[in-house]
Specification:
Strand content of chain A: 15-25%
Helix content of chain B: over 70%
Low-confidence stretches of chain A: 248-256
Oligomer: heterodimer
Number of helices of chain B: 12
Largest sheet of chain A: 6 strands, mixed
Order of helices and strands of chain A: EEEHEEEHHHEHEHEEHH
CATH class of chain A: Alpha Beta
Structural class of chain A: alpha/beta
CATH superfamily of chain A: P-loop containing nucleotide triphosphate hydrolases
Number of domains of chain A: 1
Number of strands of chain B: 0
Number of domains of chain B: 1
CATH class of chain B: Mainly Alpha
Radius of gyration of chain B: 24 Å
CATH topology of chain A: Rossmann fold
CATH architecture of chain A: 3-Layer(aba) Sandwich
Helix content of chain A: 25-40%
Number of helices of chain A: 8
Strand order of the largest sheet of chain A: 6-7-8-3-9-10
Structural class of chain B: mainly alpha
Order of helices and strands of chain B: HHHHHHHHHHHH
């Protein structure tokens, strides 16, 4: 279980990005986090990945407190962030330096084939399209077999067709790997398609607004009436989450 | 048909493995030919002017005499010996300065603490005109090889240090974060991310370092050498042989350019991954 307790993050410039965020995530669960800008959803992932340290609160993975980047946690960013001086295979194998070379290249070829990039081993990142680069980035994260895979709007820069293709690929991989996924997105359809639970956040400072369970069977059909129903419900919730609370005085609150 | 295929780029050429053809077409030589017109005209005027007594050739020897001097120096084996000595000084000094510049630049670039301690001092030292070290180096290291190589190394050190230090500071935070996610140690971060990502800037820094190395070898050989291309310059001045001076200058130009090209060719394989706007290198 990934136990997030009371997480608060205030950046040095005074931005109160996340406030008392608590969430228990079961092993192998897919969590989607949605919310307007400034709701702290990216901050949440940066804290979970160990790239930022919280002001208060704790993150525990299977009872072990995480304080810095952990071998069992990996992340895919919004941009592929590939190393341009390494080939595709070398990028994917970046976290596998400890393995013997032939074992490493076996794993790399398998994952690349799995993601539809078989034969791309010796390409340079500059030769890839946006979707291909993001797949390499995904491959680089999953070859380390993380217990928790964080995804920070990983498909948002891609066109609709590539995006849906990658979402299906990712769900396939997840069913094999059994990793816990925490997916930050602004795409409600993506959240409903992927997640077991959708966390709707509220901004200024970032907090949980609603925790919505998605009980649709997999593989999910985007045209299904249950699917569209949930989409509408979440879209209403998202709109509600953006209305400033009256008690604080709407204008002052927005400025604060 | 074959002609058409050669001219029209194939659609899948970007994906196919890059084949480098070196087309030796006349049009690619045209800029070179145009660029040569002016200097050749000057040389010709000079030569003819001296031959016809319009220009005094004693202090301004004509090209033919300079090449004759070069030829004699080469035939007697003197030229080769002088080039060898100078080249050796530059290479040793360059290696020392470049290694020191790389290591210290990597240290100050990757650690804020080390940078705070070392960088201000190094910047202050950099402000000293390097020739100012000459008397001190002679006192410390004597008048033979050590002081010369030390001066060249100092000259090479600063551009390399500055290049490495500055380029590491400019490495994209997002790439460094990936290294942190993969839990690289500081040393691994330097070796696996920081240094590779600055390679293009590094090559540039090495080239300017090498250029300064050639500059400083002349200064070093002015301060009392009995061999080397710089010695040929001093000797030519003292014995009133302008043709020898110009011959040595020409050799400096050729060898300086040659070593730069070698550096460029040797480092090219390290940079094939670059996504530059002038795609073909």
């Amino acid at each position: 279980m990934l136990a997030i307790q009371d997480l608060t993050k205030i950046y040095p410039n005074g931005t109160h990005a996340l406030h008392a965020f608590s969430l228990d995530i079961q092993n192998g669960e897919v969590i989607a986090v949605i919310g307007g800008s400034g709701c702290g959803k990216s901050t949440l992932l940066r804290l979970l990945s160990g790239l930022e340290t919280p002001n208060t609160g704790s993150i525990a993975l299977r009872g072990r407190i995480l304080k810095e980047p952990d071998a069992l946690v990996n992340i895919v960013f919004q941009e592929p962030r590939l190393f341009p001086w390494l080939t595709v295979a070398q990028n994917v194998g970046f976290g596998l330096k400890h393995l013997p070379a032939d074992e490493r290249s076996d794993i790399i070829s398998q994952v690349l084939a799995r993601l539809g990039l078989g034969g791309f081993e010796d390409r340079w990142p500059k030769e890839l399209s946006g979707g291909q680069a993001q797949r390499v980035s995904l491959a680089r994260a999953i070859v380390t077999k993380p217990s928790v895979l964080l995804l920070d709007e990983p498909f948002s820069a891609l066109d609709a067709m590539t995006r849906e293709d990658l979402q299906s690929h990712l769900i396939d991989l997840w069913q094999d790997l059994g990793s816990t996924l925490v997916l930050v997105t602004h795409d409600i359809e993506e959240a409903v398609f992927m997640a077991d639970r959708v966390i709707v956040m509220r901004p200024f400072p970032g907090r949980i607004f609603q925790d919505v369970r998605i009980d649709l069977p997999r593989p999910r059909n985007r045209m299904n009436s249950g699917f569209t129903e949930l989409r509408r419900e979440l879209s209403d919730l998202l709109a509600l989450s953006l209305i400033p609370e009256k008690s604080n005085g709407p204008i002052l609150h927005r400025l604060g | 048909m074959a002609l058409l295929e050669a001219v029209v780029p194939k659609r899948n050429e970007a994906i196919a493995p890059v084949r480098r053809a070196l087309p030796l077409r006349l049009s690619s030589w045209r800029p070179l030919i145009i660029a040569l017109i002016f200097p050749l005209a000057v040389l010709l005027t000079w030569e003819l002017g001296v031959r016809h007594g319009l220009i005094g050739g004693r202090l301004m020897p004509p090209p033919s005499r300079i090449f004759e001097t070069l030829r004699q120096l080469a035939v007697s084996g003197e030229l080769g010996a002088h080039i060898g000595v100078t080249l050796q000084r530059v290479l040793i000094g360059f290696t020392g300065g470049a290694v020191a510049g790389t290591v210290i630049g990597a240290l100050t670039g990757s650690s804020q603490a080390i940078s705070r301690i070392l960088d201000p001092t190094l910047q202050a030292l950099r402000a000293i005109p390097s020739i100012a070290w000459v008397p001190l180096f002679i006192l410390w290291f004597g008048i033979f090889e050590a002081s010369k190589i030390a001066l060249i190394a100092v000259g090479v050190f600063f551009p390399v240090y500055l290049g490495v230090h500055g380029a590491i500071l400019a490495v994209d935070r997002r790439i460094v974060e990936v290294g942190r996610v993969f839990r690289l140690s500081r040393l691994q971060l330097v070796g696996r991310i920081l240094l590779p990502s600055i390679l293009p800037n590094y090559v540039l820094a090495l080239r300017s370092g090498l250029g300064l190395g050639w500059m400083f070898v002349v200064a070093a050989e002015f301060m009392g050498a009995s061999e080397g291309l710089g010695y040929l310059l001093v000797d030519g001045q003292q014995l009133g042989k302008p043709d020898q001076i110009i011959a040595a200058i020409i050799v400096f130009a050729v060898i300086g350019k040659l070593t730069d090209s070698i550096l460029l060719i040797a480092t090219a394989p390290l940079l094939v991954w670059q996504d530059v706007h002038q795609g073909k290198r």
